[in-house]
Amino acid sequence: MKTITVFDKPMCCSSGACGPSVDPVLAIFADDLRWLAAQGIQVKRHNPAQDASAFMCDAIILAAMKEVGEAALPVIVVDGQERSRQSYPARAEMAAWLGLTDASDPLTPPKSACCGTSGCC
To answer: pTM for this one?
Structure first.
């Protein structure tokens, strides 16, 4: 089974819905991870505030933290290889890393389905 592991920045939760406002990047990323899980990908997510041992026991994250410090976060690891650091990747990018061909969002209609009628494009 393919695995994607996310080493998040320190935060109170991974949903992006914490605090006075929603962080849209985190909300989209959380949805993208749910989509990956629905495709059969094993998703692991670690937050240093709640799972410090994961950061202390992983050679990839230890090397990233030693090199750059906390600024390296988030670090995304796919099947044991670092794929991204310092930003949350888009669904299509993660899908490509994992060999998935259809990264479309079933909840978002294609532009052709709404253009001209509702002004959503």
So the answer is: 0.80
Cα–Cα distance between 102 and 32 in angstroms, integer?
Answer: 12
The pair of structure tokens assigned to 43 is 């998703």
Write the pLDDT tens digit of every residue in 8-52.
998 766 665 566 677 888 889 999 999 999 999 999 999 998 889
Predicted local distance difference test score (pLDDT) of residue 111: 39
What sign results for the dihedral spanned by CA atoms 104, 90, 64, 55? Answer: negative
- The secondary structure of 48-82 as a DSSP string is TTT-HHHHHS-HHHHHHHHHHGGGG-SEEEETTEE
DSSP label at residue 26:
H
> How crowded is residue 62: how many other Cβ atoms within 10 Å of its Cβ?
12
Q: Which of 26, 107, 37 is nearest to 73 (CA)?
A: 26
